[in-house]
Amino acid sequence: MVQRLGGATPGTRAGFARLAPRVRRAAPPTGGSLRDMNSMGMQAFESNPDVVAAKRRFGDVASPVPTDRRTPSGQFIQTPEYVRAAYVAIAYLGLRVGEYLRLKDTDLLPATKQVRVPGSKTAASTAVLPVDDAMWEWVRRAVPSPLGYKWLHQHWYRARQAVGAGDVRLHDLRHLTAQALVNAGRSEASVQNTMRHATASMTRRYARQRDRGENAKTMAEVRLASA
Fold first, then answer.
1. Residue 72 counted as domain residue
2. Contact at 8 Å (CB) between 21 and 83?
3. Average pLDDT over every residue of 209-225
4. 80 pairs with which residues across the strands?
5. How far is 123 from 185, CA to CA, in rounded Å?
6. Is 32 a domain residue?
7. What's the number of domains the chain is made of?
8. What is the CATH number of the domain that holds 204?
9. Which tens digits make up the pLDDT trace of 159-168?
10. Which domain, by its residues, includes 100?
11. Is residue 178 part of a domain?
12. Cβ pair 77, 65 in contact under 8 A
């Protein structure tokens, strides 16, 4: 599933360009003292007991994401290994960031390979989502979140800067899920159910984006054929 999320189809690329607003880049260090402070801060963070425990909990696990840095989900491999499962789970389940951060150990249902999502917007956003066997270990390692909101975003910011994708917000992983499912040919009703959209029109926008991408590709082929 996550492998499929890495597909850089015209619809996916256009969707990211449309859905992700510009973010202000962090100002570069201007002096040695600032660099030293940043280094000291990272050392303190890395030695934090919670972070050390998170590293032990995540350990080494085979990555289900592509290694092509040019794809949106190629950013996963730029995140620290001990927190990478968090980003994989958000994208795989199509979660809002707030929903992911609210997940607890008790929301994991290992007997049936399901995750109980508490929801964060409407009553309809509360659901029990199935997890494929191949992805269960990633989801299990991601819940509960090893980091809070601030550092979850900070590591994602650094990852997207590393691959030159400064526009892609953490929330766009949810958009990527919906776009990938639509691009793969899943029905509107099934995508709406997985994404827990309140209305069909919310899901339909991804189909429109896919169609624009496919039309652009078709016209390019027609143009090349007649050139």
1. yes
2. no
3. 89
4. none
5. 27
6. no
7. 1
8. 1.10.443.10
9. 888 888 878 8
10. 2-21+39-226
11. yes
12. yes
Measured distance CA(113)–CA(130) in Å, rounded: 6
Residue 2 has pLDDT above 60, yes or no: no
152/2: higher pLDDT: 152
Rg, the chain, Cα only: 19
Asked, for residue 26, whether it belongs to a domain, the answer is no
Question: What number of other Cβ atoms are within 10 A of residue 196's Cβ?
Answer: 20
Q: Taking the CB of residue 87, how many other CB atoms lie within 10 A of it?
A: 25
Torsion region of 132: left, alpha or beta (phi above 0 gives left; psi -120 to 50 gives alpha): beta
CB 116 within 8 A of CB 139: no
Most confident of 40-54, 63-77, 181-195: 181-195
Helices (H), 10-148: 10-19, 32-46, 49-58, 81-93, 97-102, 133-142
